[in-house]
Amino acid sequence: MKILLVDDDDLLIKVLTRNLATHHYVVDVVKDGEMGWTYSSTFEYDLIVLDIMLPKLDGISLCKRLRTQGYTVPILLLTAQDNITSKVQGLDAGADDYVVKPFDPIELIARIRALLRRGSNNPFPLLTWGDLLLNPSTCEVTYNSRPLSLTTMEYDLLELLLRNCQHVFSSEQLLDRLWSSEDFPSGATVRSHIRRVRQKLVAAGAPHDFIATMHGRGYYLKAPSTEESTTQSAIPAVNNAADDSQIAVSLSDSPKYSPPDDSQQQYLAFLNETWKTTKAKSLDQMTILLQAVRDLQTNQLKSQQQEQAQQVAHKLAGTLGIFGLSKTMHIARQLDYWLGGREPLQPKHAPLMKTLVMALQQDIEQTTLIQSQVPNGQSPLLLIVSSDIEFNQSLEAVAASRGIRIQIAPMLENMAKALLTRDSVFDSLVQNPDIILLHFASISSESHTHQVSNFRELQILAQRYPGLPIVVISDRSELCDRLEAMRRGGKLFLTAPIPPEEVIDTVVNLLRGTEITKKVMILDDDQDWLHTLPTLLKPWGFKVTTLADPQQFWTVLEAVTPDALVLDVNMPQINGFELCQILRSDPHWQRLPVLFLSVLTDSASQNQAFTVGADDYLCKPVKGVELANRILRRLQRVKAWASLL
Question: Helix 152-163 to helix 171-178 angle, to the nearest 10 degrees?
């Protein structure tokens, strides 16, 4: 698949093209809007990724020009302008999606896949043709369940044929669609790639003419014979057990955790190498911000100088976000906000501006290593609750090698109070973990009071993070201690001393075995209720997407790819029952758990919900714990069902 990237940010171009290349996309890059128009009107692309702030011709104007000229290829806007006005302008200009810098590489690739599916003849996550199956999410290809080892170009060739299975491609069309405009291969190059792909397919059991030749016209996929086990479908049949498991996996666009492979480690090394030069350039740009602060203090800041400083802060916010430096990025965004105000800054703003600039400079200077930027999977967070500094340090290097982030919260005397009262300071220090490791302080066998305190901390953690696995490490291993740990919410019990490798291996295995993805989409026209729900579900670690307009249901559904859906019944224009019927009519969404949440308590409404395909029905008002438990039970059943297939 071929993508045109129109952006003038050299760092973003470097990182994004590397990321797209790892997912088998061919990328052409131009740095201004006029060149974007020239390339898009000259070459054929499957998708355009377009920045808004561009030299010569801005992204909104380019998008409008493309749509006016009948250009139907999907357009994804990628910009640092995180405001409603810019989003509305971009979508009204004809864009199909909008992603704000800094972006999560996983989310961006998922959105690109969704747009490409929407614009292709096979709008499904899995591509199949007879016994051939290609999964764009994982780049895995199998024929009759036998994996095919393909080069990048061989994979791209096969994916293009699968996405356009009714089309005959000439050599010239394949060259245009699969090779960058900077490359100049010949027709012989196409023929050699076709030959190698055919050989690998035949070795896996495919017919010799699986990729057929129409003399004088080009290449196409020959229709599978009736003897093959599957049909000419873009998605596996629902009654096929092996294929059903693939459908279950595709419902969640987040694969189970696995340690980082070589490509992920190479990507992290690439980011660290890039940061060396980026850090120096970022610090050089700080001189513009520092000078702006000095001139502001003496009331000599010119409007042109303020605009230049605002552009620097704007660029820094996007740059720092690419490297995952969230805290530092937010400081840059604050500067961007203040410098980009409608009114010129006044000397009274100087202390605030100086504080922000100095904090930004200090954070950039102190950042020497980029961590946990894994493009092919989310890096889980391990919260270690321990006051043993030596023990904590021994785990850090091992966890990093397994692709696990670590956050340490010491066992303070007032931690229990902070946890129970949901202290805001504790919230600001501790992120949302995926798993917890509680290291009991070493105690003598006679210290009953200290042991009781340990178990109390465990119980409070279990209450604060319901549903999260907690691993307990203690230097006492009596049966009564193990029993008490399980009763208080512990998942596993380890006895100290224990090698750090064994501890982290235990964490990895626990993540693999218990992880349940928790993306929940909630559709309800009650805005106040929608505003409340994310807060109600936050303690259970749900990632909640809310929507009030049922007309936008399908667009948001495909963009979010939720693991569970919560629907209201009574909504304007389209009611919840109708939406559920629409959902169940699509093979891709037939297994998605659907829960109705309504003020209607009559049996007729509940029966109708189950008739159209609901999995559960709750009546308002509902407590957060009940709604969370109902959703978790449904997700656990889906996970258990998938594991049996």
Answer: 110
Q: What is the pLDDT of residues 498-509, one digit of tens each?
A: 888 888 878 877
Identical fold between 2-118 and 127-251: no
Residue from 489, 477, 384 nearest 438 by CA: 384
**Residue 111 CA to chain centroid, in angstroms?**
9
Q: What is the CATH number of domain 381-511?
A: 3.40.50.2300
Confidence of residue 137 (pLDDT cuts 50, 70, 90): low
Other C-beta atoms lying within 10 Å of the C-beta of residue 408: 18
- Does 15 have pLDDT greater than 90? no
- Helix-strand-coil percent breakdown of the chain, rounded to 5? 50, 15, 35
For 262-366, CATH number? Answer: 1.20.120
User: What is the residue type of 56?
Assistant: K
Instruction: Dump the DSSP string for 364-383.
Output: HHH--------TTSPPPEEE
Is-contact 459 533, C-beta < 8 A?
no
Look up residue 125 and give its amino acid.
P
Place of tokens 């026209």: 525
Q: Which helix (H) or strand (E) holds 448?
A: helix 448-464
Higher model confidence: residue 577 or residue 229? Answer: 577
The CATH classification number of 127-251 equals: 1.10.10.10
Q: Supply angle C-alpha 278, 283, 286, rounded to 5.
A: 130
Of the candidate CATH numbers 3.40.50.1240, 3.90.1150.10, 3.40.50.10260, 3.40.50.2300, the domain formed by 519-644 belongs to 3.40.50.2300
Amino acid at 633: R
- Contact yes or no for 350/357 (Cβ under 8 A): no
CA distance linking residue 315 with residue 625, whole number of Å: 43
Decide yes or no: CATH 3.40.1190.20 for domain 2-118. no
Partnered with residue 520 across adjacent β-strands are: 544, 564
Burial (CB < 10 A; 0-12, 13-18, 19+), residue 271, is buried
User: Can you tell me the mean pLDDT for 16-32?
Assistant: 84
d(CA 177, CA 28): 11
Burial of 110 (0-12, 13-18, 19+ CB in 10 A): middle
Say which amino acid occupies 635: L
